[in-house]
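Protocol step 4 of 5: obtain the predicted structure for the target chain.
Materials: sequence only (see below). No template structures provided, no constraints applied. The aim of this step is simply to have a reference model before the mutagenesis design in step 5. Sequence pasted as it appears in the construct record:
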Amino acid sequence: MPAVHTVLVVGGGLAGTATAIHLAAGGVAVDLVEVEPGITALGSGITLQGNALRELRDLGVWEEVRGNGFGFDSLGLRAPDGTLLVEMPDVRTGGSDLPATLGMPRPDLALILHDRAASAGAKIRFGVTVAELAQDGGRVDITFTDGTAGRYDLVVGADGIRSAVRGMLGIELKTRSTGMGIWRAFGPRPASVTRTDLFYGGPCYIAGYCPTGEDSLYAYVVEDAQNRSFLTPQRRLGTMRKLASAYHGPWDDILPTLTDPARVNYTWFQTHVLPAPWHRGRVVLIGDAAHACPPTLAQGGAQALEDAGVLSELLLDADVLDDALWTAFTERRVARATAVVDASNQLGQWLLDREQGDVPGLMARVAALVSQPA
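Step 4 output (structure tokens):
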């Protein structure tokens, strides 16, 4: 018997939908609520490392993901003029039978996971979230924003970096900017782009791209974090094009395709880690609600999926929701996720400080860590 019979998952991102899939497939009655009116995914594309692909395979969606993405096994480092400085094989952290890395459009991944959650039996409601939360020791009473109510054995707060559930628990967690902002654009993939290349130097900290399909990619440039909210869509496009124009090689093929302001977005790198424990009574926080890292190591999505996998495994294998289960969850997730966040922040800080840190050593340590199943 699972440790829980009824679960509310708050948030329809990677952590939330993955949890809903695992638990519903295991026979648990799952309600999933998402405050947005439909499936949305901030940004344009997502880079998934091998350990994320391992989790997606466990969710039963790997074949669909592979069919909608672009896998590759190496990483290139280039100078601003396009000169290829290093081409290195990437570590297959998900195992030898999975690509080292796969890029895909974020909305496609969101749709695949939501469809899988629904087919597994999860009940999904959009445009609804939690208005009030109260615990009585054995259950959690929820009032939703549409006036309905529910009573659950467990609530999973997977509602992102500004988690409302976290606030309802009275948890104060400082989210800070790392000092970097990223421009991203989605567009067609030229033949010259077959993997991620990272460009260092020039006007930006990093310029790069990731193929997301046979005919698509997302490209990005990273600058100092600044207020870009006042820019019109056309000026946002112009700003990204100006920054990207300092880079060549495959960028010379990408730049002429960056013509649609609607496909450009700008966000800051932000970070936090919630100290253990991540639960309060029968409410637990996972994904960005508990730990958020900048995308310098492309591990944010992977860590969210790992949270979901470990939490669901423990809930389905146990008979009761007790301190032993929460201790096991803490031991398997907190130190690992914290190490990934710290490494992601360190890589960014070296760039901000113009310091030549041990980037290969740092990346090797993270790869070794995440190569082991969570």
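Step 4 remarks: The longest strand covers residues 176-187. The chain has ten helices and 20 strands.
Proceed to step 5.
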